[in-house]
Design brief:
By secondary structure, the chain is an all-alpha fold. 87% of the residues lie in helices and 0% in strands. The chain has helices at residues 2-52, 56-103, 109-133, 147-185.
Length: 187
C-alpha cells in the first residue's frame, strides 16, 4: 500500500516536472531564436567594421582570431560531450554493481548517495557544456586604434568561460571516481 502511494506520488511529480520542462523548452526556443538573430546582426556589424580597417595585416589577424575562437569553442565542447557520455556509461555500470550488491543484502547507502551526487554533477556539467557550445563570441570593433583591446576582451571572456566549463567536467569526473571507490568497498 505504501509502495503504491510512493509510486503514485513519484508519477505525479514526474508529470508536473515534465509539464514545466516542456513549457520552459517552448519559451527557451523563442529566446534562442531571438539570441541567434542578435548574434547574426552582431556578426554582420563585425564583418562591416572589419572591412573598414585600413591595415590589411591587422584585418587578417582579427579575422583569423575570430575564426580560431569559434573552432576552439567547438572542439573543446565536443570533446567534453564525449567525456560526459563516457562518464554516464561508467555510471550505468556502477549503478548495476550497486544494485547487484543490494540484492545480495549488502549496505549500499554510501554508494547510492555517491551515485546521486555523481549523477547530479554529470547533469550540471552537461548543462554547462551545452550552454558553452551555444555561445558565440563576436568581437565588437570600434575605432581602429582600439581593435587590440576589443579582441583581447573577447578572447579573455572565451578563456574564462572555457575554464568554468572545464571545472564542471572535472567535478563530474571526480564525483564518478568517488562512486567507483564506494562501489569497490562493497566487495
Amino acid at each position: 500500500m505504501a509502495y503504491q502511494r510512493l509510486l503514485s506520488v513519484g508519477f505525479l511529480l514526474f508529470i508536473l516536472v515534465a509539464g514545466s520542462v516542456s513549457a520552459q523548452i517552448s519559451t527557451d526556443t523563442g529566446r534562442l531564436k531571438e539570441r541567434k538573430e542578435a548574434v547574426r546582426e552582431k556578426r554582420e556589424m563585425f564583418r562591416q567594421k572589419l572591412k573598414e580597417i585600413r591595415d590589411k595585416r591587422k584585418q587578417a589577424v582579427v579575422e583569423r582570431i575570430d575564426t580560431k575562437m569559434t573552432k576552439v569553442n567547438e572542439r573543446r565542447t565536443s570533446r567534453w560531450v564525449e567525456v560526459l557520455n563516457k562518464l554516464s556509461s561508467i555510471m550505468e555500470r556502477l549503478q548495476k554493481k550497486t544494485d547487484d550488491a543490494k540484492t545480495q543484502g549488502k549496505d549500499t547507502k554510501a554508494a547510492e548517495d555517491a551515485i546521486f551526487k555523481a549523477n547530479d554533477a554529470i547533469a550540471t556539467a552537461q548543462s554547462t557544456v551545452s550552454s558553452q557550445a551555444g555561445r558565440e563570441y563576436v568581437i565588437e570593433l570600434g575605432e581602429e586604434s582600439a581593435v587590440r583591446g576589443a579582441v583581447g576582451a573577447v578572447v579573455n571572456q572565451l578563456q574564462q568561460d572555457l575554464r568554468a566549463t572545464h571545472k564542471a567536467v572535472v567535478d563530474a569526473k571526480q564525483a564518478v571516481m568517488n562512486v567507483s571507490g564506494e562501489v569497490a568497498k562493497l566487495k
